Amino acid sequence: MPWHATGTLTALPATAHLDLVAAPVAAALASLDETLAAQVGVTPIDATLADTAEFCARYGVAPEVSANCVIIRGRRGGEERFAAAVVLATTRADVNGVIRRRLDARTASFAPMDEAVALTHMEYGGITPIGLPATWPVLIDAAVAASPEVVIGGGVRASKIFLPGAVLAALPGAEVIEGLARLVE
């Protein structure tokens, strides 16, 4: 499948290059339906340029096609609940509104970096919705799901994944939510 949102990069079929992604991402890609997996591309990048702004500037990828995956920790009583939220880089996740209510949590916040890394087995700055713990909901903003192509992390800072938003929406545990994110002003 040709990927078009790659800027100056060239994406390769992800299932043929599982060595470019984190171990849980590779396992999840290998277990995806063949039709979905064929739509996923991966490319190596300079790990020092993994953050969205630097990545987009260096490789000519539009911020409007870049999606960020953030790990949210919700709490109610003594119970913790985790979820991933996937939003376009031009927006911000509504952590204290939509996500907190979806988690049925009293409080919700971004999970601390060390906790997010330990729980996902991925590198901070490369965390991706593919390969997350099976018990976590993967909340996907409707704008991401509707995108013909988005770029996300590869589970490591040294790669990026290109795929249609519909593939993210088809992931196990995925929920498409209208209004999950708000435009950055």
UniProtKB/TrEMBL annotation:
Quote the Gene3D superfamilies the UniProt record gives.
YbaK/aminoacyl-tRNA synthetase-associated domain (3.90.960.10)
Q: What is this protein called?
A: YbaK/EbsC family protein
Domain YbaK/aminoacyl-tRNA synthetase-associated stretches: 49-168
Matching entries from InterPro entries are given as:
YbaK/aa-tRNA-synt-asso_dom_sf, YbaK/aa-tRNA-synth-assoc-dom
Q: Which domain of life is it from?
A: Bacteria
